[in-house]
Specification:
- This protein has a nine-stranded mixed β-sheet, sandwiched between helices.
- Helices cover 35% and strands 11% of the residues.
- It is an alpha/beta fold.
- Helix 4 (101-111) packs parallel to helix 5, helix 5 runs parallel beside helix 6 and helix 6 (157-166) crosses helix 8 (192-209).
- The longest helix is centred in the N-terminal third of the chain and has 21 residues, at 4-24.
- Helix 5 (132-141) links the parallel strand 2 and strand 3.
- The protein has twelve helices and nine strands.
- Residues 77, 81, 83-84, 121, 123, 125, 149-151, 174, 219, 221, 248, 250-251 line the site of S-adenosylmethionine.
Amino acid sequence: MINLQSLLRKLIFRSVNWISRKFFASRLSYSHIEAFIFCNSFKKLLNFLLVHYEKARGIEILKSYPYLFVFEVTNVCNLKCPFCLTGKGISGDRAVRHVTFEEAKKIIDEVGDYIYLLQLYTWGEPLLNKDIYKIIEYAKSKRIFVMISTNATVMNEKNNQKLIDSGIDYVMVAIDGGSQETYPQYRVGGNYNQVFENLSNLLEMKKKSGNTRPFVEWQFIVFRHNEHEVEETEKIAYEIGINKFTPLPAYVEDKDWLPQGDKYKVEAFNPERLMDCDRPWTHLNYRADGGIASCCYEFYKKDDFGEAIHTPFSEIWNNEFFRESRKLIVQKRRGKTLDKSDLICYDCLESGLRPSFIESPTETQTAQKIIATVEIVEEKPQPKI
Ligand SMILES: C[S@@+](CC[C@H](N)C(=O)[O-])C[C@H]1O[C@@H](n2cnc3c(N)ncnc32)[C@H](O)[C@@H]1O
Ligand code: SF4
């Protein structure tokens, strides 16, 4: 039976989610609030205010720095989830590789003083990067709130200890199912019993260590084949010590995957709709090949705004691509006709559809296998100049 404490917890999370959906286009989460409260400083706060001043005024050449950092520490994965571009074996014409600690240190040194929240994944499985624990520790030394989403396949005892010791704040574990019958239908290549054991081990080790960190969320993507397991899995999740259980409506490309119940139903082939965009003022999106993307919805190398392994951040943030994207967003906001542009932001703003998950017809590497055993290809990053 779910007790009073978990009911209260559910109520709080649902309220935060409701407020977030209603007022922040789903862009505010519990971790954002925690990051703002616990990882603040005078310098960060001044920068935060400056970001919003510059955004409100529609300024294109910024004095402020981004305060949210989406950092893809790897684009390698060991699973083949059918609606994930990485799972489909699509690289976006990028080198398939892990970010090194030195590369991570460079960018964290450049922007870390202003960052509240560091999300260490976009596509790919973050825990496959062996440097991730060192990267987390380094970010924590700068008082940044650090989170990951993981498929939990490589969370063995040794790695769990390293994860706890790294000081990570938030671990989202993506397990879509409550049994071996259902789970591997989407998480192709994964084993339910294994990931459940890995997760239980993390929670036990956290309990033994006496730490309240990391906050652990179980994210359950709801499809037709697993919708009947949501309630039972939620119960089990709280029993083993999960902090938050989230049944998540799925993005699907085949309507046969849609749940039959109304609760988690979404429209097939329906990528997220555009709301007012502030990302080129607030977010830094770093891809595993060093590419700087416009936002987390951008996938293909050809759409990058720059590269950050060899280029100082100060030369990227106000370059012609960022300036142009800010100009387009301001035009849209003010109801003006958009200047014709080759930037990905132009299509995104014109159509109102975010480009996430949409396969590019120009993609040339669809057959490339992005799996853990792949030989790591080092390519010289090619910024769009
Ligand atoms: C591309 S994954 C990368 C991180 C990690 N490999 C994982 O699976 O958690 C980023 C997020 O997308 C979510 N995701 C994957 N397929 C999805 C789908 N069809 N609908 C909604 N979210 C999905 C994952 O659960 C994860 O939280
Ligand atoms: S585990 Fe994550 S990155 Fe890997 S294929 Fe699945 S959703 Fe994509």
